[in-house]
Specification:
- The structure is a single chain.
- By secondary structure, the protein is of the alpha/beta class.
- Helices cover 30% and strands 27% of the residues.
- The longest helix is centred in the C-terminal third of the chain and has 13 residues.
- The mean pLDDT is 91.
Length: 151
C-alpha cells in the first residue's frame, strides 16, 4: 500500500488512521532523517488517545506509553552503538508485555529485534513524502486490510 503525504499533518493523519486497527505487535518506521517517522508515531499515539507530549526518543532511545488496548514503546535506534544494547534497554521485557513497538532505525537492532508485522518506509517526494506500507505477518496484513476498508 502506498500513500502520498502532502505535509506533516498528512503524515500524522496516517498514524491516526492506523491506530484503531492496531493490536500488540511491531511496526518498523524506516526512512532518512526528516522523513516523518516520529510524526507518524505521534499521530498513531494521538489516535490511540494519548494526549500528553510525545517526545522523540532520539536521546532516551525508548519512550514508553501506558495505553489501551496495549502499552506502546517508541524506540529510536539511531544512536544505538551496538544491537546488543537492546538487551540493556529491556527489549525482552517489552516483547513479553504484549505491547506495540514502534521502531525507528530498526536496521541498527538487526539480530536482536524480531521481524516486524508492518514496515512503513517514508521517502521524500517533491514537497511531500510517500509512505510505503508492507505487511510481513498475517496480523500486519489485517491492519492494512482494515485501514484500506476505511479509507
Amino acid at each position: 500500500m502506498k500513500q502520498r503525504l502532502a505535509d506533516e499533518q498528512a503524515t500524522a493523519s496516517l498514524g491516526e488512521r492506523l491506530a484503531p486497527v492496531i493490536t500488540p505487535g511491531i511496526i518498523y518506521l524506516q526512512g532518512e532523517l526528516g522523513t516523518g517517522k516520529t510524526t507518524l508515531a505521534r499521530g498513531l499515539l494521538r489516535g490511540l488517545g494519548y494526549t500528553g507530549k510525545v517526545r522523540s526518543p532520539t536521546y532516551t532511545l525508548v519512550e514508553p506509553y501506558a495505553m489501551e488496548p496495549c502499552r506502546v514503546y517508541h524506540l529510536d535506534l539511531y544512536r544505538l552503538a551496538d544491537a546488543e544494547e537492546l538487551e540493556w534497554l529491556g527489549l525482552r521485557d517489552m516483547l513479553a508485555d504484549a505491547a506495540l513497538l514502534l521502531v525507528e532505525w530498526p536496521e541498527r537492532g538487526s539480530g536482536y529485534l524480531p521481524a516486524a508485522d508492518l514496515t512503513i518506509d517514508l521517502d521524500f517526494s517533491g514537497d511531500g513524502r510517500v509512505a510505503s506500507l508492507v505487511a510481513t505477518t498475517p496480523a500486519g496484513q489485517r491492519w492494512l486490510d482494515q485501514v484500506a476498508d476505511k479509507g
